[in-house]
Design a protein that fits this description.
pantothenate kinase activity, alpha/beta, two-stranded antiparallel sheet, single chain, binds adenosine-5'-diphosphate, cytoplasm, Pantothenate kinase, binds ligand PAZ, coenzyme a biosynthesis, 8-stranded mixed beta sheet
Length: 315
Amino acid sequence: MTLETGHLSPYISFTRHQWSELRAAVPMTLTEHDLVQLRGIHDELSLDEVRDIYLPLSRLLNLYVKARQRRSKVIEQFLGTEPAHVPYVISIAGSVAVGKSTTARILQALLDRWPEHPKVELVTTDGFLYPNAELDARGMMKKKGFPQSYDMRRLVNFVADIKAGAKSVSAPVYSHHIYDIVPDAEKRVEQPDILILEGLNVLQSGMDYPHDPHHVFVSDFVDFAIYVDADEHLLKQWYVERFLRFRKGAFADPTCYFHHYAALSEEESVNIAGQIWDEINYPNLKTNILPTRERASLILTKGGAHAVEQVKLRK
Ligand SMILES: Nc1ncnc2c1ncn2[C@@H]1O[C@H](COP(=O)(O)OP(=O)(O)O)[C@@H](O)[C@H]1O
Ligand SMILES: CC(C)(COP(=O)(O)O)[C@@H](O)C(=O)NCCC(=O)O
């Protein structure tokens, strides 16, 4: 463990080995039930990864949630108010294809195994993208994922309502299959104990939205923010590999937005995916996502095969 660049860095930095040892304080074996849950998330997910990286993280989060609950009790005692149900909000940021949604699902499965069995809800911010018709009308179809493609005010209101203890809050739903917002669909969030909010924009603030300046940010309602990081060459590789996997599966369905790509050769598909990466996702990463990394409470840096090599925890 090192205090990065001395006392000036806001982070404590851990190698993979140092971090993995932090689970030793509590025996953390996985039960058959856990294994079945985790296998369902991803067939290539390595259990070493779960044990070394995500179990210590789940232990840390458990401590943070309990500390937060104690703090809320103090405030209630001071004010003489009734206990309110305030969900703990964890955000997960990072590039497209870095593994945000996989990380979110692993954490959801691990948090679920705590003795208290908290209700853990997962929401992705893509539901707050403007529908294609609107993006198209504004000439922004090639800007999906950029700040101006989101209804950020609606997202901030959504998280604020949840944090205010609202009984039921609804979010719009995005489908990667139709590559658009699903008309009339909604995701209802009803007072979870923990909300995991995943999306490339969750660490962005008002200054990232000069076209729509706002003064209350998603981060104002987030208790613990995680940024998943990786070298840009790996990110492109993972993006292309995911595209190729979709080409073999989902693209075959005529209702899929990318159905016309199903007939492409492997080489052509690699080129198309590379082009989408170079023209949309990479510029977005450089301009709008990477600059928010150091706002996170925790940074997970992955190497090849999605193995986390370094962990940085805000002091
Ligand atoms: N821990 C992991 N182990 C193996 N593969 C992973 C892991 N995390 C992500 N992947 C793979 O990397 C690609 C991107 O992951 P995904 O969670 O879809 O990213 P994001 O939500 O950031 O766009 C997917 O093909 C996914 O299967
Ligand atoms: C939908 C996304 C913007 C990610 O949204 P998020 O859930 O991170 O808010 C991204 O996956 C995407 O579709 N980008 C556009 C370019 C592309 O097709 O990859």
